[in-house]
């Protein structure tokens, strides 16, 4: 950020003698370069900072490999909100029944939310306790979670924590052992590493695997390394009972996980990233309509959260630097457009340097070069930090059409309510 400011101040001095530049077009291009640096600089700073913190930051939950004989001290309720998930619910329950954790230490609870298929019956066959709810006016994951978490607390059960899982989840065998160790270390709010279970299926799923490794892995590990509260990602969340007693779930929007994560930040709570706890969900492989429906819900959900949180964040009694970093996180553009804009801005700055021949413009290419180094370190970090296969990056050749597809969704109509994403497409 400081470097960006110095670059901007030095560049502005050119406009004192703009007639000497010889072209109003060059002046306008120079102004554009300055504005891009001012706008993009803070976000590039945040990306570089989080990448560095992910690599060098220390975490009490560093993804250790826990021995099978390690003592299990916590009792969990695994909560699965499900709406017409008969296609996948049995596979999910098979995965959860195979967890490397004492069977008496966890219970599986499926919320069959306004189901019209065999989800409830199949869940019971799979060994889960099933709660069926039918309410057309109050439907969706957020509402279902609020009701079931309140019921669990009212029932006075013996559980220590709840784990929220999607209905198409394949869980790593050590999931609960990792959460158990984090709970013993004092954590009340935890997020597992969440990626796709079918990353090799198409060019779209390979790109999504890279994006999720960044968004659900490096990004969270960076916040953890800085000692600040991490965002929640919906699938693989773990909440202690004591935490929910202080701060009950009350999030009902299209991005209920993000909404709740911000409520924790604003309340001064800290959510932790537990990289050794891993869950995998099915990625939409080939059906453009299903992918668009899912992406549209995510994007509009984030926009709604951004509007709702902005004023509250400014007024929140948080320390100065955490508030600054959280504000940048709230306003952060998607990484794809940010990377494209950074490359384009760097090329523009180099072109201006060559055209103007003014030594002050040497600062411009230096700024963009350092930004690209930080951004590049972030983009390749999943290979080192999370074991993502390097061959996935060959699919970056398809990134332009993926970015154009995402850009087109910006103009689509906002979804009125949560809509289930079709599986196996």
Q: Could you characterize what this model shows?
A:
With 425 residues, the chain is of the alpha/beta class. The protein folds into 2 domains: 2-58 and 321-409, no CATH class; 76-290, Spore Coat Polysaccharide Biosynthesis Protein SpsA, Chain A (Alpha-Beta Complex), CATH 3.90.550. The chain is built from 15 helices and 8 strands. It has an 8-stranded mixed β-sheet, sandwiched between helices. It starts with a helix and ends in a 16-residue tail after the last helix. Mean pLDDT is 83; it is low at 1-21 and 63-69.
Strand content: 5-15%
Name the assembly state.
Answer: single chain
Number of strands: 8
Mean pLDDT across all amino acids = 83
CA gyration radius, whole angstroms: 23 Å
CATH C-level category of the largest domain:
Alpha Beta
Q: What is the global morphology? A: globular
Question: Superfamily at the CATH H level of the largest domain?
Answer: Spore Coat Polysaccharide Biosynthesis Protein SpsA, Chain A
Model regions low in confidence, pLDDT < 50 over at least 5 residues: 1-21, 63-69
Count of the domains:
2
What name is given to the CATH topology of the largest domain? Answer: Spore Coat Polysaccharide Biosynthesis Protein SpsA, Chain A
Structural class determined from secondary elements: alpha/beta
- What is the share of helical residues? 40-55%
Order of helices and strands: HHHEHEHEHEEHEHEHHEHHHHH
- Strand line-up in the sheet with most strands: 3-2-1-4-7-6-8-5
Largest sheet: 8 strands, mixed
Determine the N-to-C terminus distance: 43 Å
């Amino acid at each position: 950020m400081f470097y960006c400011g110095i670059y901007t101040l030095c560049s502005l001095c050119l406009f004192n003698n703009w007639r000497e530049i010889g072209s109003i077009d060059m002046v306008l291009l120079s102004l554009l370069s300055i504005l891009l640096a001012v706008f993009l600089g803070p976000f590039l700073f945040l990306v570089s900072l989080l990448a560095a913190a992910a690599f060098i930051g220390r975490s009490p939950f560093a993804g250790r490999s826990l021995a099978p004989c390690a003592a299990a001290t916590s009792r969990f309720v695994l909560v699965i909100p499900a709406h017409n998930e008969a296609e996948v619910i049995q596979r999910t329950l098979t995965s959860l029944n195979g967890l490397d954790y004492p069977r008496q230490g966890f219970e599986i609870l499926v919320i069959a939310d306004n189901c019209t298929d065999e989800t409830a019956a199949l869940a019971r066959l799979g060994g889960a306790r099933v709660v069926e709810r039918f309410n057309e006016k109050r439907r969706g994951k957020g509402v279902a979670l609020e009701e079931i978490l309140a019921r669990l607390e009212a029932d006075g059960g013996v559980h220590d924590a709840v784990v929220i899982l999607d209905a198409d989840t394949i869980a790593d065998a050590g999931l609960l052992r990792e959460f158990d160790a984090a709970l013993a270390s004092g954590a009340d709010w935890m997020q597992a590493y969440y990626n796709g279970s079918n990353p090799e299926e198409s060019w779209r799923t390979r790109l999504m695997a890279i994006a999720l490794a960044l968004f659900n892995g490096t990004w969270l590990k960076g916040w953890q390394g800085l000692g600040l509260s991490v965002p929640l990602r919906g699938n693989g969340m773990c909440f202690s009972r004591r935490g929910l007693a202080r701060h009950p779930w009350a999030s009902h929007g299209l991005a209920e996980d993000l909404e709740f994560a911000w409520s924790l930040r604003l309340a001064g709570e800290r959510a932790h990233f537990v990289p050794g706890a891993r869950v995998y969900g099915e990625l939409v492989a080939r059906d453009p309509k299903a992918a668009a429906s899912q992406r549209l819900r995510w994007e509009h959900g984030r926009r709604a959260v951004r509007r709702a949180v902005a004023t509250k964040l400014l007024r929140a009694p948080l320390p100065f630097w955490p508030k600054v970093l959280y504000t940048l996180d709230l306003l952060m553009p998607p990484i794809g457009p940010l990377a494209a804009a950074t490359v384009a801005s760097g090329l523009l700055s180099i072109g201006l340097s060559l055209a103007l021949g003014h030594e002050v413009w040497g600062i411009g290419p230096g700024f963009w070069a350092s930004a690209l180094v930080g951004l590049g370190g972030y983009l390749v970090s999943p290979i080192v930090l999370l074991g993502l296969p390097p061959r996935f990056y060959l699919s970056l050749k398809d990134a332009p059409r993926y970015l154009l597809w995402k850009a087109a969704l910006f103009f689509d109509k906002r979804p009125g309510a949560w809509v289930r994403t079709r599986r196996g497409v």
